[in-house]
Every structure is written in C-alpha cells, then in structure tokens.
Amino acid sequence: METKNILEVKNLCTYFFMDSGVVKAVDGLDFVLEEGSTLGIVGESGSGKSVTSLAIMGLLKGTTGKVVEGEILFDGRDIVPLSEEERRRIRGNEIAMIFQEPMTSLNPVIKTGEQIMEVIRLHQGASREEAKERAIQLLKDTGLPRVESMFDEYPFQLSGGQRQRVMIAMALACNPKILIADEPTTALDVTIQAQILDLMQRLKDKVGTSIIFITHSLGVVAEVCDHVLVMYCSRSVEMGEVKTIFKNPAHPYTRGLLASIPKLGEHVEALESIPGNVPNPKFMPKGCKFAPRCKEAIEKCSQMEPPLFDLGGGHKCRCWLCEKEAADVRSSGDGAHGDCGDGGGRTSAGGGVNE
User: Has this prediction a pTM greater than 0.85?
Assistant: First the structure.
C-alpha cells in the first residue's frame, strides 16, 4: 500500500536578520513526513532543529527570523505564504506542538483545565460543557490521576511530568494530523521519560497522528521513530529509515553520535566524543561544515560542500566519502548498499542500541 506524505519540506531557508549580520539557522532543508509515521530530527544544539519546527508552526512572527525561501507543503498546500489568521486556524487544530519546557508554555495564572478547554472551544466551536467533558477525558487518556481535582489546579501545583502530560492532552485536543514534539522529555527523569514516550506512542496509534520528534537522544529515536533526519549546522547530513541509520550509518557525524551512546553490558573507561565544537553560524567553514571536527576528512572536504548523495532505499548522506557508493547505486539501479569509498569503508556504530 502506497504511503501518503502529510508534510513535505522543500529547500527550507530560515534566516535571522541581526544587527551583527545574517544567521542562516536553516539552510536548504528537505524532508518528508509520511502519514501515520514518526520522524526523528536529531543533532547538537544550534543545528536548526527547533527553528525548523517554529517555521512549520508559523511561530517566527515577532522575532528577527523569516522563511526566505522554500516550501512547507501540508497536505499538498504550501503554508508558508498564509496570513496569520489562516495560520491560526491550522495551528493547534491540524498541526500541534509540545514544547520542551511546559512550565513556560502553560499560562501560570489560568487553571489547567481552562487552558485545554480554550483550545477545544476555539477550534471546534464546542460549548463550555462539551469542552470540559472532552478536556477531562483527554487528561484521563494521558494516565493522570485525580483528574477532576487537577482540572481546577494551576500549573505550578503540578509536577514536571504532570505538566508535560497536560501539554500532550492540549496538543491532542483537536486530533491534529501532525504533532511536533520539541524535546518533550529533556527536563524529566528517566522513569517519567519512559512513561511519556509510551504515552505518545499509544496516543499516536489511537488517533493516527503523524509525529515529528525533535531530540538530542538517538536512543529515544531508536525507541519511537520510523525515520530519522540528522542535522548539523542548519542542514541535513543524513536521513533514512531508523534501522538503516543505526545498522549502517554513513556520515562520520552520525557515527560519532552513535558511538557516544552508553551500551548495556559494555564496560568502557570513557565514552567516545566528537572533538571540537559546532562552528559559529556567522563564520561557517568553507566546504563541509563538519570537516574541522571529522577524523575521516579528506582534502576535498575543506574545499567543497558535498551534496546530499542518494545511497538507495531512501538513505541519503551529505559526505564526500559516499560519492562512490552513490555512483554505484545510480549505475546498478537496485538501491543496494556498498561500502563508502575513500574513507576506508563504513562500520556500524549503533549495534548496542535497542531498536
């Protein structure tokens, strides 16, 4: 059965215009989100993950940021040029978002239940009684205890995990087609993280929502995502199915991220790390942006930025070491994977992560 793309991002360029210069936060990003699937977007701080989500939501107004080029096709319709009024009809209704820190996302002086009711009444035209009934059921669906009393409490009276569940209930209030979760488990302890991930998976299966999951953690991606997009310095460096990326990572950056994950049953003196830091977005290096930190860089890497090579089967990688493999895939036409060229072959670094 052929899958439908609910979201297509094409050549997205989102720049911030500062007094000190232009910052290219997202520069030529392409990806698709299939209906009913979960896409994980990973990368270090400053890679452009959150700015991508804000561009999709249309939440850059009032900042120095602007989508200067590209398309964001939601259900086949480009939503970039829409007016703010048209965006409001989509935002929270058809595309919803869970933010990283619920305490700053919830209004501290409005009761928890009232905030969920507001979303339902605004987008679905429900009466106050209908909205309250729906809101209480949503809170129950998230597994929260004593929902009736919590309904009349303020956000500061709830724990971090409870506030995050309230945010999930609010985001799902209108059964959105797309849910964007921007690091929703970062501030929570590991037990609550597991509960939130399980909750999102269950609600996704129940409602059929497509999810964009933004995170630093490849372990989380392995647990909940179908596809993964790895970002570095405002661009995609690798993308593909989760199993493909974890078993056969092509980009040195992806391999570095995977190698830094602790593995059960394996004792090491120190975890591997990627040397150096993410470059200043105002002073990007020439050529491949990762080259100054890459152990496998060749002379060509510092001279020209590589394109996104197609390695077959939906697997793509922005690395000169994969140029030969991409050429072999094109000539064979079968989408089979070979070894990366000049870098001495590629090895899996993700074998110890649960899939």
Answer: yes
